[in-house]
Amino acid sequence: MIFNLRKEKKFTYTEVGEGKPIVLLHGLMGGLSNFGHQMDFFSKNGYKVYFLELPLYSLPPLRTNILGLTNYVISFLKKVVKEPSIILGNSLGGHLGLMVTLKKPKYVSALVLTGSSGLYERSFGDSYPKRGSYEYIKKKAEEVFYDPKVATKELVDEVYATVTDRFKAIKTIHIARSAIKHNLSQELKNIYQPTCIIWGKQDGVTPPDVAEEFHEFIPNSQLFWIDKCGHSPMMELPEEFNQILYNWLKEVKL
To answer: Which domains are present in the chain?
Structure first.
């Protein structure tokens, strides 16, 4: 399926299907293509699926941080979705899902975390000075996945375009540093929504012990592992990911 983004009420997003809402939140280097399989599957199985493009490069400087992005997602839920939603977030998107749930729990019916930040993650970090090397960026993108072939040329080109654009690179670093400062280890106990944690066993960005810590401290959570899988299970092994999530949603009656 081809999904087209549209702009409305300051938001850039797409929606497909009918039923209970699922809102998809991408990571710092992510986009619509990361969730194509989920949009297709869940929109055909009783859910209205929203993908929200995060304004990583368009927010004012003082709001280009975790709190600014959290408030943006809350505004989207309030003005567009208008009912409690299942929030599915990968990497930075998972971090925002956690923040929204803590700040405005009435907007969240359930939380799904996959490769989520919020506790600890490895990133490009100090490697940004090498951003001029396409081969280096290609290698780093491939390391996100268990199977490096998942890092297609199109995906690598997108990452390369971001890290070689000085304006975008500065914004990206700023958001990444903000995420690191907003460690949620002391707040996870205050999340009471049903939470599904789906993690790649070979995730090298947010290692398996991060998933175990989320599971330990979020009261109403379940943890599912996907073997031979890295940081983005919904991309790398989408059929297995979708089936785990679909079965869990039925189990918790959502």
So the answer is: 6-121+183-251 (3.40.50.1820)
The DSSP string of 10-33 is TEEEEEESSSEEEEEE--TT--GG
Q: What is the pLDDT of residues 22-64, one digit of tens each?
A: 999 999 888 888 999 999 999 999 999 999 999 998 888 888 8
Buried b (16+ CB within 10 A) or exposed e, 11-45: bbbbbbbeebbbbbbbbbbbebebbbbbbbbbbee
- Least Cα distance to 167 among 125, 205, 131, 118 occurs for 131
Rounded CA separation 203/83 (Å): 33
For the question of whether the overall pTM of this predicted structure is more than 0.90, the answer is: yes
| Residue type for position 103 | K
